[in-house]
Amino acid sequence: MTRPITFAIPKGRILDEALPLLARAGIEPEAEFHRKESRALRFATNVDGLSIIRVRAFDVATFVAHGAAQIGIVGSDVIAEFGYSELYAPVDLQIGHCRLSIAEPVDAPPEDPGVASHVRVATKYPHLTRAHYEAQGIQAECVKLNGAMELAPSLGLSRRIVDLVSSGATLRANGLVETATIMDISARLIVNRAAMKMRAAELVPMVERFRAAVEASHAA
């Protein structure tokens, strides 16, 4: 018996924007998926042999890269942070737009030029943060946080943070200001490379339906 296809979808900011694209691609999760009080993580769909798992954004890439899921949706920030060679990202879904930025307190005093070769940064993107600063000849000491990044400067954990920014309202509410953008981000359809070869008859048409769904949403 052929193993079912598992589609990994992120919780959080991308999910609401992804659902209309799923529908345009002909995929509808079961009713349980839409119940806010549901604690289930795996759901059937209207497509035979296709189930959806709903996990943290960073975990989508891990599930797909290791073949536990064959296809998924995740932000380009996650793809760049992990750099999994096992992932193929054939479609920019043109949703989940935001940016990965550096921010610090609005009233931060000018920095001593003598310490400019070393910075301390709170972030959940240590790879991208270090790479950004290394390109400027600066060593970045990254303090790994998974949330509440905006508290780090006020509590003395770090002068700077690197985090996702959309409107910038959360930064402003916490007395922070963007000082640089590391990368612009959008959500991508990702596929496990091995699965794409071994199960091309199932996955290639699915990829093409998403490509067509993106084109249709922009033509509307």
UniProtKB/TrEMBL annotation:
Family the entry assigns: Belongs to the ATP phosphoribosyltransferase family. Short subfamily.
Native source organism of the sequence: Sphingobium lignivorans
Keyword Lipid biosynthesis: no
Pathway: Amino-acid biosynthesis; L-histidine biosynthesis; L-histidine from 5-phospho-alpha-D-ribose 1-diphosphate: step 1/9
Reactions accelerated catalytically: 1-(5-phospho-beta-D-ribosyl)-ATP + diphosphate = 5-phospho-alpha-D-ribose 1-diphosphate + ATP
Record's subunit section: Heteromultimer composed of HisG and HisZ subunits.
Taxonomic superkingdom: Bacteria
Domain ATP phosphoribosyltransferase catalytic: 56-211
InterPro entries according to UniProt: ATP_PRibTrfase_cat, ATP_PRibTrfase_CS, ATP_PRibTrfase_HisG, ATP_PRibTrfase_HisG_short
Subcellular location: Cytoplasm
Name of the protein in its database record: ATP phosphoribosyltransferase
Gene: hisG
Entry function: Catalyzes the condensation of ATP and 5-phosphoribose 1-diphosphate to form N'-(5'-phosphoribosyl)-ATP (PR-ATP). Has a crucial role in the pathway because the rate of histidine biosynthesis seems to be controlled primarily by regulation of HisG enzymatic activity.
TM helices/strands, residue ranges: none
Main location: cytoplasm
Species classification: Bacteria, Pseudomonadati, Pseudomonadota, Alphaproteobacteria, Sphingomonadales
GO MF annotation, one: ATP phosphoribosyltransferase activity
Notes on the domains: Lacks the C-terminal regulatory region which is replaced by HisZ.
